[in-house]
Amino acid sequence: MMRRLMLLRHAKSDRPDNVDDHARPLAERGRRACPLMGAYMVEQGLLPDLAMISKARRTRETWELIRTVFPKDIMQIDEPRLYDASAKAILDVIHETPPDVEALLVVGHNPGLHELALKLIRTGSQQNLSRLQQKYPTAALVVIDFDASKWNVITESTGQLERFVTPKSISSGLSGLV
């Protein structure tokens, strides 16, 4: 059985004065990127069965703007443990995913998402892996497929990088490089 993990870094956020990191909103650039990523996900059939969202304001705003373009409601869990989480902590949360969920979307933060993606990937497009190793920009989406019967058996170096897309690669037509 296949499991598909989609890791989405929150869109570009603002840094207003006197606002706690957890409460930072999206910047205008981030607000523009979200519908683009959502439309890409719909067009490519990358709809999750479940979305786990960090409780930080910028991740919640990213999810809200992306899901508005989805043709159906997606089950959502607001997950406080994803905020400022390490790769291991994020994987621990993923391991708790119910077995009936085949496609999981995690909306979170760097550096944890970046480190997790690199740890999980064993194979995939060398070009996409090289791009991912260099940088995991805001609003970027990593899709990793696993041959696994349950989420709790996913371990390091067992995934296949299915694609790595950024708002820039989509808007410039580079998303065909998946």
Automatic annotation (TrEMBL):
Coiled coil: none annotated. Gene3D superfamilies: Phosphoglycerate mutase-like (3.40.50.1240). Its EC number is 3.1.3.-. It comes from the Bacteria. Keywords: Hydrolase. It is an enzyme of class 3 (hydrolase). InterPro entries: His_Pase_superF_clade-1, His_PPase_superfam. This is Phosphohistidine phosphatase.
